């Protein structure tokens, strides 16, 4: 998927709280603070991502894609909660694998922007 330069540069500067309510993020991160409690469907609903436009979901994806490769790889996926709140915990290996299995629709071992959008839409 190609994005235009303006979208790319905006996503580089954009923070999660530019798109989502800070209090919603705090509550959602807190709700899944226990190891192996993460449920991406509930999390995406709690942070308000499910209600966002397709463009905003793509902007969130680009914030989470820390290495700007155009994909969220398994190592980045383990830190997904930190993408929403820097003091959040890392996902466990089990949670990371579960989330990857749910999001990686084409089986290439990474989640692209369209796969992420589908993952959010299915939440």
Contiguous helical run count: 9
Q: Which percent bin holds the helix content?
A: 55-70%
Number of domains: 1
CATH architecture: Orthogonal Bundle
Q: Summarize model confidence as the mean pLDDT.
A: 91
Q: How would you summarize this macromolecular structure in one to three sentences?
A:
This protein has 123 residues and is mainly alpha-helical. 57% of the residues lie in helices and 5% in strands.
List the helices and strands and how they pair.
Blueprint: H1 5-13, H2 16-19, H3 22-31, H4 40-46, H5 54-64, E1 71-73, H6 74-77, H7 80-84, H8 93-103, E2 110-112, H9 113-121
Antiparallel strand pairs: 1-2
Family: Belongs to the parvalbumin family.
GO molecular function: calcium ion binding
Keywords: Calcium, Metal-binding, Repeat
Question: Key features?
Answer:
123 residues; two-stranded antiparallel sheet; Recoverin, domain 1; 57% helix; 9 helices; 5% strand
Characterise this structure.
It is a single chain. The protein has 123 residues and is mainly alpha-helical. It has one domain (18-122): Orthogonal Bundle (Recoverin, domain 1). The protein has nine helices and two strands, in the order αααααβαααβα. It has helices at 5-13, 16-19, 22-31, 40-46, 54-64, 74-77, 80-84, 93-103, 113-121, and strands spanning 71-73, 110-112. Strands 1-2 form a two-stranded antiparallel sheet. Helix 1 packs across helix 5 and helix 3 runs antiparallel to helix 4. The longest helix has 11 residues, at 54-64. It is globular, with a radius of gyration of 13 Å. The two termini are 22 Å apart. It comes from Macaca mulatta (Rhesus macaque). Ca(2+) binds at residues 65, 67, 69, 71, 76, 104, 106, 108, 110, 115. Residues 52-87, 91-123 form the EF-hand domain. InterPro entries: EF-hand-dom_pair, EF_Hand_1_Ca_BS, EF_hand_dom, Parvalbumin. Belongs to the parvalbumin family.
